[in-house]
Write a structure and sequence with these properties.
The structure is a single chain. By secondary structure, the protein is an alpha/beta fold. It has a single domain (3-190), classed as Vaccinia Virus protein VP39 (Rossmann fold). It is 26% helix and 26% strand. The protein has six helices and seven strands. Strands 3-2-1-4-5-7-6 form a seven-stranded mixed β-sheet. Helix 4 (68-80) links the parallel strand 2 and strand 3 (85-89). It is globular, with a radius of gyration of 16 Å. The structure holds S-adenosylmethionine (SAM). S-adenosylmethionine binds at residues 10, 21, 24, 44-46, 65-67, 70, 91-93, 108-110. S-adenosylmethionine (SAM) is lined by residues 10, 21, 24, 44-46, 65-67, 70, 91-93, 108-110.
Length: 193
């Protein structure tokens, strides 16, 4: 599928979805690590539950997704909630973030390994990455069916080596009961000041 066809597929999904989605556990569990201010990016934001969380946390929030439907829905929800979010319909593979441009970059449920060096470079000194997505070692069978779009064991630690790890967690099938963390890996890591 080309980029256009892929965006159309996502437009349909976002059109059918009931609400804005869920706030990522990597944010909910690490509120204390959020900077007090500065510029944040929710990359591949979908309908923007995370972007709204970041805006409510006092960050100047930008949110990008290549689905025009997702961005329309986020704009509408932000307006209703009187939140200021700078949204863009943007293919992040074609137009990744500029170097030294954000104090926080959040990525949830989106895995494009070739973007990772650009994400690390996009951080300003002291800036932080919050990243969460699905692992291959599954318990609940949530997330993408394609193996390539799921993380290998410890993969986030390898992808973001060079940053200082502040938090890391990986919940595969070793757990006896499902939780909201099942099948997910997450990292918070920062660039040196
Ligand atoms: C599984 S959804 C995750 C949405 C959101 N981050 C969340 O956690 O709810 C993946 C998102 O990536 C977006 N996406 C996929 N490829 C993209 C690309 N090349 N550029 C921008 N957005 C993209 C899709 O439109 C979709 O909204």
């Amino acid at each position: 599928m080309n980029g256009q066809g892929h965006a159309e597929k996502w437009n349909r999904r976002h059109h059918e979805a009931a609400d804005s989605g869920r706030v990522a556990q990597v944010l909910l569990r690490n509120r204390h690590l959020l900077p007090e201010g500065g510029k944040a990016l929710d990359l591949a934001c979908g309908r923007g539950a995370n972007a709204m969380f970041l805006a409510r946390s006092g960050l100047e929030t930008h949110a990008w997704d290549f689905s025009a439907v997702a961005i329309e829905r986020l704009d509408e929800e932000a307006r209703k909630n009187e939140l200021e979010i700078q949204t863009q319909v943007r293919d992040v593979l074609v137009r990744p973030p500029q170097p030294d441009s954000f104090d926080l970059v959040l990525v949830s449920c989106f895995l494009e390994r070739r973007l990772v060096p650009r994400l690390m470079r996009a951080l300003r000194p002291g800036g932080m990455i919050f990243y969460q997505t699905f692992v291959r070692d599954v318990y609940l069978h949530r997330g993408p069916s394609t193996e390539e779009w799921r993380l290998a064991p410890n993969e986030l630690l390898h992808l973001f080596q060079g940053l200082q790890v502040r938090y890391y967690r990986e919940d595969g099938k070793i757990f006896s009961a499902p939780t909201e963390l099942s099948d997910l890996a997450m990292i918070v890591a920062s660039r040196r000041s």
